[in-house]
Structures are given as C-alpha cells and as structure tokens.
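@here heads up, posting the sequence + SMILES for the 2-acetamido-2-deoxy-beta-D-glucopyranose run so it's all in one place. Ping me if the SMILES looks off, I pulled it from an old spreadsheet.
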Amino acid sequence: MLVLFFIILFHGSLTLASDPDPVFDFCLPNETSAGSSHSSCKNSSLARVEDFIFSGIKFPGKFNGSGFSSTAVNSKVFPGLNTLGMSLVRADFDVGGVNVPHFHPRATEVAVVLEGKVYSGFVDTNNQIFAKVIEKGEVMVFPRGLVHFQMNVGEIPATIIGSFDSQNPGLMKIPTAVFGSGIEEELLEKAFGLSPKELAKLKKRHAPH
Ligand SMILES: *[C@@H]1O[C@H](CO)[C@@H](O)[C@H](O)[C@H]1NC(C)=O
Ligand SMILES: *[C@@H]1O[C@H](CO)[C@@H](O)[C@H](O)[C@H]1NC(C)=O
Ligand SMILES: *[C@@H]1O[C@H](CO)[C@@H](O)[C@H](O)[C@H]1NC(C)=O
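bot reply: prediction finished. Complex structure tokens:
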C-alpha cells in the first residue's frame, strides 16, 4: 500500500499541472527528452546567459482591428522561465484600442501602465465590477481567474506590462471562447437572444486567429 502511494506520488510529480516549487536553481527544459510537456532539465553546466534573456518585447507588436497587440512572455517562448512560476505580457494599445474581456485560468496578474491612460477593470464572481482609468506609473491587480479588460482612453498609444504568478497563465478571451469555438449556433442564439444574422457577424468577428 505504502509502495503504491510512493509510486503514485513520484509518478504524479511528473504529471503535476500546478506551478511547482523549484528544487533547482533553474530548469532549462531538455527538448530532446521524451515528448511530454514536462520535459527533464538540461544539465545546468550547459546553460548560457542567453537562456535567461528574452528580447521579444523590446518593440510593440502589430495592431489589429481592435487597436491592440500583445506578446506573452511565458515558458513556451522563454524556456528560462520553466519551473520558476512567473511570466509576463507586453500589451500595446493604439488610441482607443481594446483588450477584450478575458481571463487567465492559472494566474493573478499585476499590470503596470508604462505609457498612456487606460480604462482598466475586472468583474468578480458576484458580477461586481471594479474599473477605473489608470495612468502611467499606476498598477492594477486582476485576481486569478476573474474576467478583466482594458481600453486606451488617452490621446497617445498606451503600453502595459502584466506579470503573472505562473510560468504559463493561460488566456481565454471571452468573445473567442463563446463565438469562435464552434458552440452550436442554436444554443448561442438562444443564450444571447441573437438572430442568425447577428450571430454570423459575431462568429466572423471572433473567429480564432
Ligand atoms: C536530454 O535528455 C536526453 C534523454 O534523456 C539525454 O540523453 C541528454 O543527455 C539530455 N541532454 C542534456 C543537455 O541534458
Ligand atoms: C553535467 O555536466 C558536467 C560537465 O560536463 C558533468 O561533470 C556532470 O556529471 C553532468 N551532470 C549530470 C547530472 O549529468
Ligand atoms: C485583436 O487582437 C487581440 C489580441 O491579439 C484579440 O483579442 C482580438 O480579438 C483581435 N481583434 C480583432 C478584431 O481582430
């Protein structure tokens, strides 16, 4: 029985899905070790300073139709973060640009406004809203799993850096999850009181890309 428990415990530790408490200084994933998402660590003597530097958010991304661009800096794009339980996002907003309501299932986010004036907020599980315009230098926290959103209400482009207490916070955009995921049309029409034409428009707009 005890043996079984330890087998489950140690086997389980390989497939555990929460951010772990690191037991090494760092763990650069060994990409060549068998295909699971939880690869083993590279021998640390092979680590280079470049493994701990990510240069992909020096510049804003391209704005799309919503005047928004974001670049996630998570363990997928920056393996140096692996096992460290943190990550970042850079978000840029054109004037009037919108970050649609979304949530991160695995992390609380602390977002600092680097530039601009941003209407910023979240909704709790009682559907109570907490929203306000915050400015350059101000910080807002979005508690884990709660729906939040932002819009640039200033006269210049805005930039935000969000930091997460997970190496892989996950991102669910409400419009895409609802209208872009392939949920049966009849259900969506009934749930949102939409005509087929209105629904078609929303589906087109929020198709995943
Ligand atoms: C990566 O894993 C493979 C298979 O387990 C091992 O042979 C190899 O030495 C590892 N590479 C490094 C850099 O640790
Ligand atoms: C890591 O590499 C160093 C230097 O090549 C070697 O001495 C050491 O035994 C390796 N450690 C492991 C766990 O493979
Ligand atoms: C613009 O991009 C953001 C983030 O990449 C996305 O959430 C949004 O749905 C996009 N909007 C349009 C209209 O393409």
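MO: The first helix runs from residue 2 to 15.
MO: One more: Residues 64-66, 68, 70, 100, 173 surround 2-acetamido-2-deoxy-beta-D-glucopyranose (ligand 3) (CB under 6 Å).
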